[in-house]
Design brief:
The protein contains 13 helices and ten strands.
Amino acid sequence: MKYLSIAIPCYNSQDYMAKAIESCLILKDDVEVIIVDDGSKDETACISDEYAARYPETIKCVHQENGGHGQAVNTGLKNATGLYFKVLDSDDWFDQSALVKVLETIKMLHEQDEDIDMLIANYVYEKPSENKSSVIKYTNALPQNRRFRWYDVKRFYPQQNLLMHSVIYRTQLLRNCNLELPKHTFYVDNLFVYQPLPYVTTLYYLNVDLYRYYIGREDQSVNEKVMISRIDQQIKVNKMMVDCCDVMNLKSRKLRNYMVKYLTMITTVSTVLLVKSGTPEHLQKKEELWEYLRKQNPELYKAVKHTLLGSFMEMDSLVGKKVLTTGYAISRKLFGFN
């Protein structure tokens, strides 16, 4: 049995995909690597096939018409046979010693008949252009090295959101929650993490720096200019997060509070980018986004507004806009993301 399926969505990734793939090739009997060639026009398909031929027991390659990152993740999940499922973007990589510890933990839990719904590990922002890296840990918020539930979770700091980089879901849970990411849409990683959360009852935190998240390519989807040019896709994902779950009716207070916090963060990003762009069209879209949240779920709207970030987000004054953009700039500086 494969304990972990790792999906690697690839689109024109010939220059860096080998590093991502090679980082998975440890304890090969326990890992399944699914390379999804998303209609690439360079040598990605050829490189994928070569790896599948070299490691037929570990690597499978799936070629598809271009459908975007979300569709590539969907394809990876559809083809996954492992007990757990993880996404690795083709320009990122794993720390192999951390991956070994993750696999040993998954195997140990399974052998003890204590499979969990979600495993969490640290991730690292890697910014070679500035010779800088920043580790995001969860040691203050989560119990370590034991199975726990939402009521055991403590306070997350603003930078400690659970992102695609830090989570590993049980494969069947993702299927049970009917997760299907939209085609031709960026920023679906937020929906990937957010939608399954109400189905998660058992968690495990391993304090290892597993995921190395590369920052610095000019065409990277998280580059601010690129994000503004794709703001409609960010808003689309933002609205899907509003609609995917009735957060305010969740029984677990800590899960409910965390999901409100997460949605607030995403809505803050959408709002800041629209404000920074400053065009009349984008400022109108900001108003429409908030009105959408208010109409779709008035109780959730009030909860988001009640947060510190939410209290500033709808402000049309110069002070409100200054607080938003300054806070965003400080966060980028502190945590090293684009």
